[in-house]
């Protein structure tokens, strides 16, 4: 379950999924649960991993939790009770944690966090469960409405507080109203408060740690957006470590992660933020497409092609993101094509797009068994992957031109044919002075444009 879906589910769990009344209120809950499990297991065994079962007496469904061990979150309701979530082994049909909890979340160490409302209003009781269903108390009476993992063995505790929200969507005129807005506390592994001043919002995914750092917002005095569709605070952003201390300036308008790169924004200026908080200025138009790409980017959108989870078109693209672009084109041109295998061939990357791209032969790893997903792709790597993708999608090889790039001697033997093949069919061209610059970077917008050119070449 995604972090945003987890928080929404926690907020809505007070009975919105209940579907029955009458006889079901007095029915034998255990017998109904046993019947539901039987039906869910029958569906699951046919490959339906999001099985559900609905009768006049109950509603039951499963959600992926730890599929590699056949463990799924079980939702089961016969009334308006809040306590409907548990854990089931779909292979054996054994309910290892009964559906008596408000939320279930998988943690990093192959354990689970379970929560229920505490005895006092707006408090939470929490437990840890192992894969066998053995429970230990994590905390009792935490002052909050929701809790989830923040990574690094730490947690985000959320509570609703009345805050001023300027709704610019729901009302005819922008209107400021006091509304329940999530506010966050950062807890350590013992669920003690490390920081209690983190801003949340409406429909805002809680922050999480990346390599020991977390981007947080503090100091908001007004939330802009909509009470219905989501609102963000006007506070400033910075990076904190697992002690809760800021390691960067806390004056950014926003911070984005692009794998190993952390990008901060102040006004219309962008900065590369180092793990120690140091900054390097980046072009102010980093998040805009260059003028030369306009026509091809527009036509790409018409063909179902876009940058996949990539916010900065002029930033050099990573290997994992380029694989995602290649798979996107493969899916557009081959909608009934091959699915990604379950196993990854690389020791450092289990990305679904990379698994499929490797299975198709579009990407290859390194001799040490790694893929290096966060490394930026070089121009010769891009040419090689584009050429493989072209052939996989049915493209035919053209006669090689005898004209050589001025820096041909710098090409790898593994990339030379691809570089010239992509030039000859008009997919990827050289740069000034008849140079290709094989070790140079390749931007997100360049990747999208070349995918659009491949689309047109293959769709003729």
Question: What topology emerges from the helices and strands here?
Answer:
Elements: H1 3-12, H2 29-45, E1 52-54, E2 59-66, E3 71-77, E4 85-89, E5 94-101, E6 103-106, E7 112-117, E8 123-129, E9 135-143, E10 146-151, E11 154-167, E12 175-187, E13 193-199, E14 214-218, E15 223-226, E16 230-233, E17 236-240, E18 254-258, E19 261-266, E20 269-273, E21 279-282, H3 294-302, H4 319-333, H5 352-360, H6 379-392, H7 416-424, H8 444-458
Parallel strand pairs: 11-15
Antiparallel strand pairs: 1-2, 2-3, 3-4, 4-5, 6-7, 7-8, 8-9, 10-11, 11-12, 12-13, 14-17, 15-16, 18-19, 19-20, 20-21
Helix pairs in contact: 3-8, 4-5, 4-8, 6-7
Give the total of domains: 3
Biggest sheet: strands, sense, closure? 6 strands, mixed
Instruction: Please give the number of β-strands.
Output: 21
Kindly state the percentage of residues in helix. Answer: 10-25%
């Amino acid at each position: 379950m995604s972090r945003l879906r987890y928080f929404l589910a926690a907020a809505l769990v007070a009975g919105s999924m209940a579907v029955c009344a009458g006889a079901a209120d007095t029915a034998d809950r255990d017998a109904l649960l046993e019947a539901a499990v039987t039906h869910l297991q029958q569906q699951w065994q046919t490959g339906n991993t999001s099985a559900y079962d609905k009768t006049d007496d109950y509603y039951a469904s499963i959600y992926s939790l730890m599929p590699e061990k056949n463990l799924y979150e079980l939702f089961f309701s016969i009334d308006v009770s809040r306590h409907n979530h548990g854990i089931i082994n779909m292979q054996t049909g054994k309910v290892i944690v009964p559906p008596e909890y408000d939320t279930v979340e998988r943690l990093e160490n192959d354990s689970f966090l379970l929560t229920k409302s505490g005895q006092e209003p707006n408090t939470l009781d929490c437990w840890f469960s192992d894969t066998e269903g053995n429970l230990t108390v994590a905390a009792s009476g935490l002052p909050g409405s929701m809790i989830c993992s923040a990574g690094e063995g730490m947690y985000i505790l959320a509570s609703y507080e009345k805050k001023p929200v300027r709704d610019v969507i729901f009302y005819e005129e922008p209107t400021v109203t006091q509304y329940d807005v999530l506010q966050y506390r950062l807890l350590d592994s013992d669920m003690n408060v490390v920081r209690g001043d983190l801003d949340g919002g409406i429909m805002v995914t809680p922050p999480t740690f990346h390599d020991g750092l977390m981007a947080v917002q503090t100091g908001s005095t007004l939330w802009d957006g909509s009470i219905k569709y989501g609102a963000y605070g006007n506070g400033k952003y910075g990076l904190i470590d697992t002690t809760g201390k800021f390691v960067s300036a806390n004056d950014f308008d926003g911070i984005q992660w692009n794998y190993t790169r952390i990008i901060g924004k102040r006004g219309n200026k962008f900065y590369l933020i180092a793990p120690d908080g140091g900054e390097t200025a980046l072009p102010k138009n980093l998040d805009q497409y260059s003028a030369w790409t306009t026509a091809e980017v527009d036509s790409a959108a018409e063909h179902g092609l876009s940058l996949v989870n990539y916010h900065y078109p002029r930033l050099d693209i990573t290997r994992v993101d380029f694989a995602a672009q290649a798979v996107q084109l493969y899916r557009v041109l081959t909608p009934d094509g091959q699915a990604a295998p379950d196993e990854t061939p690389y020791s450092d990357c289990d990305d679904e797009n990379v698994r499929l791209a490797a299975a198709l032969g579009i990407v290859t790893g390194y001799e040490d068994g790694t893929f290096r997903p966060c490394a930026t792709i070089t121009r010769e790597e891009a040419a090689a992957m584009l050429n493989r993708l072209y052939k996989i999608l049915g493209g035919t090889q053209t006669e090689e031109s005898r004209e050589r790039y001025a820096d041909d001697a710098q090409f790898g033997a593994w990339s030379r044919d691809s570089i010239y093949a992509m030039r000859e069919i008009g997919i990827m061209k050289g740069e000034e002075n008849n140079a290709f610059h094989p070790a140079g970077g390749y931007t997100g917008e360049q990747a999208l444009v070349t995918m659009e050119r491949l689309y047109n070449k293959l769709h003729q």
